[in-house]
Design brief:
Layout lengths: L1 H7 L9 H12 L3 H4 L1 H8 L2 H28 L6 H8 L2 H35 L6 H15 L4 H29 L19 H12 L15 H39 L3 H46 L6 H4 L10 H17 L2 H29 L14 H20 L1 H12 L1 H15 L3
Length: 448
């Protein structure tokens, strides 16, 4: 009995500072998108100038979203991020569905797809046969997961180190592109791109997906020092840093090899630039940089998504909530929730197309984003006299821009992948009977 009571008093360790939170924001955003989406954005935009404007527009829209969430985070600094916000702003039902979608499919699928891509890169780098890709992906995911069973300062330190490491090849691309690139790159046009051009809106949509991941740091609200101040700062400065990085990388690549070459090479544009500017060694260094980037991105996601499961289990909203809400007394980490998320990830790596599953959930993620952005107006109306530690700048225009940007993503998804949208809604709907059994029925059966 005493052991049980002692365990119930164990709480998450509130030890993460601003630099740890910043590295998580930057680390979870910068994965492989900036390395592989250059041609896609350029092709849809139709010109170098259009591509640069698309990256800037995507960044500014992401910043509007981040500033809106930052105001909410300063008022609801709880573990679980979006799940906690939806529950407070609306009700337990909407909170549960947002959390369910993230822990059952979206989060595990994102981690699984990163693991699968990492295995491919490691296989190419070390000349390993493709049949070893699945075991390599599983080992990589489990290794990063084990790291996160230690006190959160280890995962945070790893995030800082990998973020710094991934910025080294990024800095090299920027410097060589800016100082050794062709000055006339922006006067060139992509002669045959207009046959498949998607337009500026589609180009901006591609950049929004490359910027996604910034909100995950909010899942650690219960482990960040002074979260009412630190979360808004980490989200705001983290997104601003990524905008600057993405713009400089895109500008450097365009200056170095020009839009026509980028169009011809597709996803191989940046590796070509690395080999061109640095030789074979440069290509190897870039590969190492991308590998580290993926590992850092994976670490951020494995560190944050299990916190949603833990927060839901603490509210007794999931099957086996008692076990999933367990915190290791020594490390103060939700080791059972971490293991549960990793188990789902491994199943996806072995039996499903993780990339496709993560794409299916983009629609529902942005639906919940829209609801969260409306929460800025709801909370202000509900608590008109509440003193806010952080207020979104240029209110009400900033949250309105965030809402419109999310609606643009939602409409684009409906238009381009209607079947996927239906499947995505079906995945969320599977959580409804779970909610009514685990939350409603248990509540009614509880002794009064």
């Amino acid at each position: 009995m005493k052991k049980k009571e002692a365990n119930s008093n164990v709480k998450l360790n509130r030890s993460l500072g601003l630099w740890s939170a910043l590295s998580l924001v930057v680390g979870t955003i910068i994965g492989v998108g900036i390395f592989v989406r250059q041609a896609a954005v350029l092709n849809d935009a139709g010109s170098a100038t259009g591509a640069m404007l698309a990256w800037l527009a995507g960044g500014l829209l992401t910043l509007a979203a981040g500033l809106s969430i930052a105001e909410i985070a300063s008022q609801i600094p709880a573990t679980g991020g979006l799940y906690a916000y939806m529950e407070v702003i609306y009700n337990k039902f909407w909170g549960f569905l947002s959390g369910w979608m993230q822990i059952i499919v979206y989060g595990p699928a994102m981690i699984a797809s990163l693991g699968a891509y990492l295995a491919i890169l490691l296989g190419d780098f070390f000349h390993i046969q493709p049949q070893w890709n699945i075991p390599i992906a599983i080992v990589a995911v489990v290794a990063v997961g084990l790291l996160n069973t230690f006190p959160n300062r280890f995962g945070a330190a790893f995030s800082i180190v990998t973020t710094i490491c991934k910025l080294v090849p990024v800095a090299a691309l920027i410097i060589f592109g800016l100082f050794f690139g062709h000055a006339d790159a922006f006067t060139q046009s992509v002669s045959d791109v207009h046959s498949t051009v998607g337009g500026f809106g589609v180009a901006m949509l591609a950049t929004l997906f490359a910027f996604d991941g910034w909100i995950l740091v909010a899942n650690l609200g219960g482990e960040i020092k002074n979260p009412k101040k630190m979360l808004p700062r980490a989200i705001t400065f983290g997104i601003l840093a990524v905008i600057a990085i993405y713009m400089l990388v895109s500008y450097g690549v365009l200056k170095s090899i020009g839009p026509q070459k980028i169009h011809e090479l597709g996803t191989n544009a940046i590796p070509y630039m690395a080999n061109k500017d640095f030789g074979v060694i440069g290509g190897k260094i870039l590969s190492i940089g991308i590998i580290i980037s993926i590992i850092g991105c994976m670490n951020g996601k494995i560190m944050t998504f299990p916190r949603i499961m833990y927060a839901m289990a603490k509210e007794n909203q999931l099957p086996f909530s008692k076990q999933l809400a367990y915190l290791n007394p020594k490390t103060r980490t939700p080791i059972v929730s971490i293991a549960a998320v990793l188990a789902i990830v491994i199943i996806m790596i072995c039996f499903f197309d993780a990339d496709r599953l993560s794409e299916l959930c983009i629609f529902t993620v942005y639906c919940f984003y829209v609801m969260a952005f409306f929460g800025v107006f709801i909370l202000r109306k509900r608590h008109p006299d509440r003193k806010r530690v952080f207020s979104v700048p240029l209110y009400p225009f900033t949250p309105i821009i965030a809402i419109l940007a999310s609606l643009f993503v939602i409409c684009s998804e409906i238009g381009s992948d209607f079947i996927g949208v239906v499947c995505s809604l079906g995945i969320v709907a599977l959580g409804i009977p779970v909610y009514y059994f685990e939350v409603t029925s248990k509540k009614n059966k509880a002794p009064k």
